[in-house]
Design goal:
- InterPro entries: NAD(P)-bd_dom_sf, Sc_DH/Rdtase_CS, SDR_fam.
- Belongs to the short-chain dehydrogenases/reductases (SDR) family.
- It holds the Pfam family adh_short.
- GO terms for molecular function: oxidoreductase activity, acting on the CH-OH group of donors, NAD or NADP as acceptor.
- The protein has one domain: Rossmann fold.
- The chain is built from 9 helices and 7 strands, in the order E-H-E-H-E-H-H-E-H-E-H-E-H-H-H-E.
- The structure holds NADPH dihydro-nicotinamide-adenine-dinucleotide phosphate and 2-hydroxyethylsulfonic acid (8X3).
- The site of NADPH dihydro-nicotinamide-adenine-dinucleotide phosphate (NDP) has 28 residues, from helix 1 and helix 7.
């Protein structure tokens, strides 16, 4: 049966690769982000394969999230798969030097934004007793690294929310699981380092990082398991990476 997926952070990186993968696999799409021109381009490209609707909202603004989701046309109103992906790191500083604005951004986007979207979409899944939610966590949600403090806290929160959602939605047959990547080359480090491209590129130099398509492929695997199989928590790193701080660079 034809399914519809709702992907946050679809304008770049892991979310965009997942949108492309899903479209090629016949899954209709609701794609979210703030960069309208990218949403338009994706709609144009992926609309050749499947039905695509785009929503432009800042995930930090709960009223905008609710309003955008309430505005979904009938054809897109039933969401089978939710990919809670939007998020970023802002800054890489010791706790004594970190910026409060960066902390606000990470907690508001990665944690509260994920909750706002989930709050707007879970009731219909509960009512139907069906749905699949994938929360994009991180190795940073399993392990804290130097200067990672608040980003790691935000991803540890995603880990806890993932577990809590799975417990609470268990009676309704809704599948909940997390995909926790290590180093993936996306716009992530450009955002973290506020547009400093050299610094961002350096993060992925000297080893082969994961590509967003690798994660999209895994997400597609997760959502295509038979109904009785729920991949609850998956960690994936580049082969060169052993932990948040151990990367075998040439
Ligand atoms: P990108 O920077 O490439 O993509 C981030 C996406 O999030 C963009 O589509 C962006 O859209 C969206 N986004 C950011 N802020 C907001 C906001 N305020 N409102 C709405 N949308 C927002 O990074 P990745 O693809 O790497 O990151 C995706 C997820 O994967 C994040 O949760 C990240 O923490 C996680 N992750 C990434 C890893 C990596 O190494 N890259 C590793 C582990 C986890 P727009 O700007 O258009 O709003
Ligand atoms: C992203 C992985 O190690 O760059 O969540 O924080 S890391």
């Amino acid at each position: 049966m034809k399914k519809t997926a709702f992907i946050t952070g679809a304008t770049s990186g892991i979310g965009k690769a997942t949108a492309i993968n899903f479209a090629l696999n016949g899954i209709d799409l609701v794609l979210c982000g703030r960069r309208q021109e990218r949403l338009d381009a994706l709609k144009e490209e992926l609309g050749k394969e499947v039905k695509v609707h785009t929503l432009n909202f800042d995930i930090r603004e709960k009223d905008s999230v609710q309003k955008a989701i309430s505005s979904l046309p009938k054809d897109f109103a039933k969401i089978d798969i939710l990919i809670n992906n939007a998020g970023n790191a802002h800054g890489l500083d010791t706790i004594q030097e970190g910026s409060v604005d960066d902390w606000d951004a990470m907690l508001d986007i990665n944690v509260k934004g994920l909750l706002y979207v989930s709050k707007a979409l879970i009731p219909q899944m509960v009512e139907r007793k069906s749905g699949h939610i994938i929360n994009i966590g991180s190795t940073a949600g399993k392990e804290v690294y130097p200067k990672g403090n608040v980003y790691c806290a935000s991803k540890h929160a995603v880990d806890a929310i993932n577990q809590g959602m799975r417990i609470d939605l268990n009676p309704y047959g809704i599948r909940v699981g997390a995909v926790n990547p290590g180093l993936v080359e996306t716009e992530f480090s450009n955002v973290r380092f506020k547009g400093d491209e050299n610094r961002a590129e350096n993060v992925y130099k000297g080893f082969q990082p994961l590509k967003p398509e690798d994660i999209a492929d895994i997400i597609h695997f997760v959502i295509t398991r038979p109904y009785h199989v729920n991949i609850a928590d998956l960690i994936v790193m580049p082969t060169a990476q052993a932990s948040s701080t151990i990367v075998n660079k040439s």
